[in-house]
Design goal:
The structure holds two protein chains of two kinds. In chain A, 40% of the residues lie in helices and 2% in strands. Chain A is mostly helical. Chain B is globular and about 65 Å long. The termini of chain B are far apart. The chains are: A mainly alpha, B mainly beta. At the A-B interface, helix 6 of A face loops of B.
């Protein structure tokens, strides 16, 4: 019995890797996270250096991606992009990105807006929130399945789940443009 | 001067105006378009509009010129009908801003011609008058704030030298408004919102409502949670008609914002109903609340027209409103009294119209609440008729047959309200919706107004989103989302002629006479919406849920819109 208890204690200490949840960045950290260096055409560029020091949490951290999913609902993204299929704004899940697919491009789209009607959210969201949303939007239109991306909705499940790499599963004919 | 004399003078003036812009060569309705001649219709023009969005306007034929306004960014073309090869007489491209591109995706671009002026609105909120002969700009004013999500909705209506316009931003929490401009100068004469305090809405001493008899003030405020009216929606919906007899503008109001109904408890006046306004002052005269506390965000969409018909033995001019909620209303334009209302499509959301109040009786099984999905709500978005924007999907009435030809959608929907947060200039909807349905999902319904039931219907695989043209000769023209332009016999609905335009049709067909005397019909193809290559239809909620209900609708090989003109030999 004691052996079992010891075994269980050892296993519980070693087998579970608890994912870190950085609930809110420190102000200097958040300020540093806003230091993106975009290309002249505002598509692509260098991510803030601190992103790598932090271990790119908005790429593969389930908590951050899930927060992004909640923000996607709360900030009215669905009004223009539905659950990723698009309405008056373009689809986000088909792997086609008008303004680039990398984190810096998507962060810039959120922060500064884009010409054809995408509003700027820089004054409406925190830097943390914009990066969380960036991470989620990238997972929406990802070509690769991910274990960190959300797998189900708390609401009407209307499309292939984010963790399945929705862009790779796009079986419809590609638009010509 | 006796009032009757005054009225008849004005009618003569109006008629004179109509003739002035119609010109000698373009009779409103060539009689030759009848059942015998329909099979001989041939395409004589297929002019690209160079825009791939929803080509949902109507062209206007005036004199020897055909005017077409493309989707955003707008381009106006005056096509010479009296010259071989139909060359462009002039064209004009108003300044555009890319910010308005998404917002303007579904706008109706029908222009108006009056007193030698071509009047139209643009997706970035401009109302513009051009000289119809030369295309020079007479005036250009901004009348809608695009940065807030407000747009000018529907075609301008010209009445006695006034240009009547409506604004809409229901999905962005914008209070919709009606306004009048001076046709000569573009100066604003009046502007009233459809939601808000009585002073903003134009409710004063002359206002009576049959359905809301008690005259307490500011009902546009107290029927909302505190302050919610400020983002109340209620833009122009279902177009505007002018009642010459009572000198009233009658128009529909859009749905309340947000779609999510739980955060806007109350009747949400004056959204989702019909307003009558004095044409000179804009003051409200009566209001019919068609969908108090509109649960499904359909608004009083659909089509609104006036018709002279025999009503219980008397010849009367009445309003016919085929509404997005699935009912045909017969309304007395004098005071807004609902004389009759019957469902023209299968409806599950409501069980009928209360004869006392004129409002629908709710079906409790189709109630909606936050974070729960209600399935099988019929009609589905954007409603049983109409394309969700004013001036789209208009029905037509033919006095000869007594039938109202309604372009109908038989789609249903699943609806799930979610949290909605208001951020200025961003969508304020807060709901998941997907449409559902199997063929036939659309129909051309010939509604016998006198007996309140369909005389016949032509079933279609897809919902009808464009308008209907009924000719005096007895033909009914309409277009389908899969690109067919059809002519049916107005008496029995037999399809006598059809033409594949190559792209879906969501526009209003127009009949006119060519300068050489031949009868012609014009229609724009190009549907936008689900045909837009930016839509990924694996998301059932994409394109307002059309991606689910219309998943088998093939996108066109070429989404560019085209202006087709068909003529008899």
């Amino acid at each position: 019995m004691i052996e079992r208890c010891v075994l269980f204690a050892v296993l519980s200490l070693t087998a579970c890797k608890r994912e870190m949840r950085d609930l809110r960045s420190d102000p200097p950290e958040a300020a540093a996270l806003d230091q993106v260096r975009p290309m002249e055409n505002r598509i692509g560029g260098a991510a803030p250096r601190i992103m790598y020091a932090l271990g790119q949490p908005y790429e593969g951290n389930a908590y951050q991606l899930n927060q992004g999913k909640r923000l996607y609902d709360w900030f009215g993204c669905k009004g223009c992009h539905a659950q990723g299929g698009g309405v008056i704004g373009p689809a986000l899940m088909d792997g086609w990105w008008r303004y680039g697919s990398d984190p810096v491009s998507i962060y810039l789209s959120l922060r500064d807006g884009r010409p054809n009607g995408m509003p700027a959210f820089g004054q409406r969201m925190t830097t943390d929130q914009m990066w969380q949303l960036t991470g989620y939007i990238r997972s929406l239109g990802s070509y690769r399945p991910s274990t960190a991306a959300p797998s189900r909705n708390d609401e009407m499940q209307a499309r292939p789940a984010e963790n399945r790499g929705p862009a790779a599963a796009a079986l419809i004919a590609r638009p010509s443009r | 001067m006796p009032r009757a004399v005054l009225r008849s003078t004005q009618i003569v003036l109006l008629l004179g105006m109509v003739m002035a812009f119609a010109g000698p060569a373009a009779a409103a309705d060539p009689p030759a378009l009848d059942a015998a001649s329909a099979p001989r219709l041939r395409a004589i023009m297929a002019l690209p509009t160079e825009r791939s969005g929803a080509n949902s306007g109507a062209v206007v034929a005036a004199g020897t010129t055909l005017f077409v306004v493309t989707p955003y960014p707008q381009r106006v073309k005056a096509i010479a009908l009296d010259r071989p090869g139909f060359p462009t007489r002039w064209s004009y491209t108003p300044p555009s801003t890319p910010e308005a591109t998404a917002l303007a995706a579904n706008m109706v671009t029908t222009p108006a011609v009056a007193d030698g002026r071509l009047l139209f609105v643009t997706g970035n909120g401009h109302a513009i008058a051009l000289d119809a002969q030369s295309g020079t700009v007479l005036w250009d004013t901004i009348q809608a704030d695009v940065s807030q999500g407000e747009m000018l909705a529907g075609p301008p209506l010209v009445v006695d030298g006034r240009v009547i316009l409506g604004s809409q931003g229901d999905d962005f929490g914008v209070r919709g408004a009606m306004l009048a401009l001076d046709a000569a100068s573009g100066r604003r004469l009046w502007r009233y919102t459809n939601v808000g305090p009585d002073a903003d809405v134009g409710i004063g001493g002359g206002f009576r409502s049959v359905a809301l008899p008690n005259a307490e003030p500011d009902r546009g405020l107290v029927t909302w949670p505190a302050g919610a009216w400020q983002q109340g929606g209620g833009g122009l919906s279902a177009g505007v008609v002018y009642d010459t007899q009572h000198e009233l503008l009658i128009h529909g109001t859009g749905h309340p914002a947000p779609w999510q109904p739980d955060v806007r408890q109350g009747d949400n006046l004056w959204t989702s109903g019909l307003f009558a306004r004095d044409v000179a002052t804009g003051q409200a005269r009566w209001f019919d609340p068609l969908n108090p506390h509109d649960l499904y965000a359909l608004g009083a969409g659909g089509s609104l027209l006036q018709a002279e018909l025999d009503w219980h033995g008397t010849r009367r001019t009445l309003l016919l409103h085929a509404s997005a909620n699935g009912y045909v209303y017969v309304i007395d334009p004098a005071d807004g009294r609902i004389l009759d209302a019957h469902a023209f499509v299968p409806v599950t959301a409501t069980t009928g119209i209360d004869p006392e109040t004129g409002t629908p009786q709710r079906n409790p099984a189709m109630d909606v609440s936050t974070n729960s999905t209600t399935r099988g709500i019929c009609p589905g978005w954007p409603g049983a008729t109409g394309g969700g924007v004013p001036g789209a999907g208009s029905a037509a009435f033919l006095p000869r047959t007594g039938l109202l030809y309604i372009p109908a959608s038989l789609l249903c929907m699943d609806f799930e309200p979610r949290q909605a947060n208001y951020l200025p200039g961003t969508p304020y909807t807060g709901a998941n919706l997907r449409t559902t349905g199997t063929p036939p999902r659309g129909a051309l319904i010939a509604w016998d107004v006198a007996v309140a039931r369909p005389a016949w219907r032509v079933e279609e695989a897809f919902p009808l989103r464009g308008g209907v043209l009924a000719t005096e000769g007895g033909l009914v023209f309409y277009g389908t989302l899969d690109g067919w332009f059809k002519a049916a016999d107005a008496g029995d609905g037999r399809v006598l002629w059809q033409f594949q335009t190559g792209a879906g049709i969501v526009s209003q067909p127009v009949a006119f006479t060519l300068p050489d005397g031949r009868a012609a019909v014009a229609v724009l193809s190009g549907a936008g919406g689900l045909a837009n290559p930016d839509i990924d239809r694996r998301d059932a909620t994409a394109a307002h849920g059309a991606a689910n209900g219309l998943r088998d609708l093939q996108p066109p090989t070429d989404p560019i819109g085209r202006l087709y003109v068909f003529a008899l030999p």
